[in-house]
């Protein structure tokens, strides 16, 4: 109606979205989502869409319109909306106990407002540990090509997508890249003709090379996504994680796993790292923690990390109140607790595994049919189909054509995503991350829409 048109006009005139809105096809998309229920959303014109991307960026894990989460937040806000520090932390304490019950070996939860800030906190702890324990020397933080960790200057300094970093420099020193582990693009890495476990081990060994080159006494931590999200839906091959863990132990390098996308069920386990039996020192999480019903993020650590700060109470910096005003604020953990209840009571981890396996099979069938799909991959309800111009050379499909596929799906009333727009070589993968409540028929609808769109765009 008229009011909505005015709101849309105000949005277009005054809201500064992300930078890619300066691209013509972004600004020409007139869609504003105004309502959601379950797997579906409606735009300002009342058109229904199947949401194949959980709110755009892997967030609404339990689906839209969850009254019990809204009620939990409402009840908490009326009881106590805010009080700083320990005086307002009852939901925070209850949530902390609950989340660490899913993370054996980890004990401490530091609350933040966003994934970026949670990662930033882990980076800061690594730097402090370097000062407290290693005379400031062991301060370097390794990150992986193609990974992404957030919007702050330090997170961008740990950003493995170089073009994304453009024009924000100078960056924070002490962040060092290690090679990606996307087997489909192994031919670009010059390690010979490796595949499967051998490739996984080679990609992990490349980390050791970087540590040796930099000097193990200068490397404090490594930050990795369990499954790389925006950089290409990359599931590290067998052989990768055990070797990474071994290398971290060998050189006393802390392992930071960025679960901002995978956390809270996306891959069918509470956390992505739990598929691989590894033991991280830091786990950061955000998006799915409260499925977008409130802003909440955190950095979870082991007691070993906590203890490194404990025995120097004489250090004046230990009294610096490095606490964020809204971190762990009551509404966030209240929503997050109810989110966990839903995941458990509705068996959403099991559903994610079943539906994820089904969807991966369907994507493989689509690959058999469409020459333009070079590779399909994924874990749980976190899947991708990489589009190429030529299956032999694996030359990435250009952005315009990939966007034409997502655009055609949109016209069909089905929202699917693509990996990072604007980054040549990174923006050619169709992305699927439906809510964890997805049914077989939802998945069939996502696949059919993609099938039709691929036929339309590529013939
Ligand atoms: N890490 C990863 C893996 C992400 O995908 C994102 C967000 N896209 C972030 C961190 C940053 O999280 P936030 O947007 O909440 O700051």
From TrEMBL:
Gene3D superfamilies: Aspartate Aminotransferase, domain 1, Type I PLP-dependent aspartate aminotransferase-like (Major domain)
Protein name: Taurine-pyruvate aminotransferase
GO molecular function, one term: pyridoxal phosphate binding
Keywords: Aminotransferase, Pyridoxal phosphate, Pyruvate, Transferase
Origin species: Roseovarius nanhaiticus
Family (UniProt): Belongs to the class-III pyridoxal-phosphate-dependent aminotransferase family.
Known cofactor(s): pyridoxal 5'-phosphate
Lineage: superkingdom: Bacteria
């Amino acid at each position: 109606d008229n009011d909505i048109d005015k709101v849309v006009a105000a949005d277009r005139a005054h809201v500064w979205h992300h930078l890619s809105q300066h691209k013509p096809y972004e600004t020409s998309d007139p869609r504003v989502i105004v309502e959601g229920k379950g797997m579906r959303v409606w735009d300002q014109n009342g058109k229904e869409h199947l949401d194949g991307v959980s709110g755009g960026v892997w967030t609404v894990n339990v689906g839209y319109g969850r009254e019990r989460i809204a009620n939990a937040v409402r009840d908490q806000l009326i009881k106590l909306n805010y009080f700083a520090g320990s005086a307002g932390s009852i939901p925070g304490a209850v949530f902390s106990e609950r989340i660490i019950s899913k993370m054996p070996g980890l004990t401490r939860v530091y609350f933040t407002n966003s994934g970026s800030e949670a990662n930033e906190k882990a980076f800061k702890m690594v730097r402090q540990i370097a000062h407290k324990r290693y005379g400031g020397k062991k301060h370097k933080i390794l990150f992986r090509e193609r990974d992404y960790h957030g919007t702050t200057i330090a997170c961008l300094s740990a950003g493995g997508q170089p073009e994304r970093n453009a024009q924000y420099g100078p960056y924070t020193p002490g962040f060092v890249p290690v090679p990606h582990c996307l087997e489909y693009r192994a031919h670009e890495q010059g390690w010979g003709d490796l595949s499967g476990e051998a490739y996984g081990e080679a990609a992990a060994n490349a980390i050791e090379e970087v540590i040796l080159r930099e000097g193990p006494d200068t490397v404090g931590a490594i930050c990795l996504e369990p499954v790389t999200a925006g950089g290409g839906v990359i599931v590290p091959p067998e052989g990768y994680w055990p070797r990474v863990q071994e290398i971290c132990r060998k050189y006393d390098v802390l392992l930071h796993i960025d679960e901002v996308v995978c956390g809270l069920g996306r891959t069918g386990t509470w956390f992505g790292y739990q598929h691989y039996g590894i033991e991280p020192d830091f786990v950061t999480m955000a998006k799915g923690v409260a499925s977008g019903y409130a802003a909440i993020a955190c950095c979870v650590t082991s007691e070993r990390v906590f203890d490194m700060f404990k025995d120097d109470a004489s250090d004046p910096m230990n009294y610096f109140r490095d606490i964020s005003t809204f971190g762990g604020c009551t509404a966030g953990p209240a929503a997050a607790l109810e989110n966990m209840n839903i995941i458990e009571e509705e068996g959403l981890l099991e559903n994610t595994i079943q539906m994820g396996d089904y969807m991966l099979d369907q994507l493989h069938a689509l690959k058999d049919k469409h020459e333009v799909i070079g590779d399909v991959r994924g874990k749980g309800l976190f899947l991708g189909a990489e589009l190429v111009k030529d299956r032999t050379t694996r030359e990435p499909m250009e952005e315009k054509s990939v966007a034409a596929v997502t655009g055609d799906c949109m016209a069909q009333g089905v929202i699917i995503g693509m990996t990072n727009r604007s980054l040549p070589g990174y923006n050619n993968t169709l992305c699927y991350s439906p809510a964890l409540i997805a049914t077989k028929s939802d998945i069939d609808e996502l696949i059919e829409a993609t099938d039709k769109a691929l036929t339309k765009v590529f013939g």
